[in-house]
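pinned: reference chain
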Amino acid sequence: MGQPKQLLPWLGKTVLEHVLDNLSSLDLKGVVVVLGFEADEIARRISRYPAKVVINREFRRGMSSSIKVGLEHVPADSGVMLFLADQPLIGKDTIGHLVAEFERSRKGIVVPVHRGRRGNPVLFSPRYRAEMARIEGDTGARGIVAAHEDDVMEVEVSEAVLSDIDTVQDYNLARELEKGTGPMEKKNKLGDLVVLIKSGGELGSAIAHRLYHCHFRLCITEVARPLAVTRGVTFSEAIYDGHMEIEGVTARLVNSPQQVARVWEAGEIPIMVDPQASVKDFLRPDVLVDAIMAKRNTGTNMSDAPWVIGVGPGFRAGQDVHVVIETNHNNNLGRLILEGGAEKDTAIPVAIGGYTFQRVAHAPFGGLFRAERKLGDTVSAGDILGWIGDSPVRAEISGLLRGLLRSDVEIQKDTKMLEIDPAAQKEECGSIRGAPRAVAGGVVEAILMRYNRK
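pinned: its structure tokens
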């Protein structure tokens, strides 16, 4: 970042000065600032504050070394609040609330939380001083908290307790949030809406593709090892390859919520491994779309976002989601359902060329799947397309291999392995099909129904 992060500009001062302003405004017994890297320069910048400044010459040994140095300057009978110097978003009201709850509670440890996620600062009773003096490494005092869960009080506060500054992207995002322009702030126009899509499978990808062209800000969540079959049109392939392009739109794998804004700035869709869609607590999406297509609700609730959309069977509009989108291949495909659920899944593949069940293959048992052919190959009835262990998987009909699992993946019984289209051309493997486009259109309609009111 070109300079110590404590000295980065923040509202006319520096990050650390802003933190000290908030701490100094409260009736605390004292503030100890432990400095390591570039300590002398930082100490000069904060010399006007009443805080006691101490130097940790062993700062490269991790956060624990700074905690132990700081403890030497705190009265033995005093509680301790461990406050990170790079959390300027935490206001004095939040700090004061945590201190008040600590003094009121009989618990020895107070931890701030936001929607189930723990953050900082953490407050400790004097009875944990001895354990704090023995910690090692760069994990801080998390081990102490974990060892005494029965003595922990969680206090619900704002999302600021989850945000710190470790990278340039973190800093830029924090500044946007402070100014009210970040992804978690109020949206004033449709293009500011944040949409979180659960699943980068064929339907979820078609939805993301259409919403991208409608200029919404998107994020896709996936499992660690997705088993997509129509891989030419699934953004979930980015989980394996780092990125995936469908009809000119790219999804890119990110490893943390803080990287989402950077991918948006690049004009791409962030996708991340997050089976529980926990990123919603960071992004605070305006819309959540569950496109997992599990034929049941795997954990989506109306409280997950202001507008929650369930795709296909398994959801009930008005109960666990606000709107359901019909996915059965009939005249109702893509229709919005505002009360009740979608039609029951027929379990019959769409007929093409008179073929239904013959077009697809599901695993008769579990095991390691190895592909013998490639996506887009032209195959004939009887050809070996892959293997489950030593057992061959053969084509029942001739046509284009429109869908095929990745090779060398573990599958369970009844997992869909492949799909043959007797009428398609090879280039169609990378084109979104009509039915997913219709469902995506229904999602657009559902969003506009909620957010384009006069």
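why pinned: The chain has three domains: 5-162, 190-347+434-451, 357-422. The domain at 357-422 is CATH 2.40.50.100 (OB fold (Dihydrolipoamide Acetyltransferase, E2P)).
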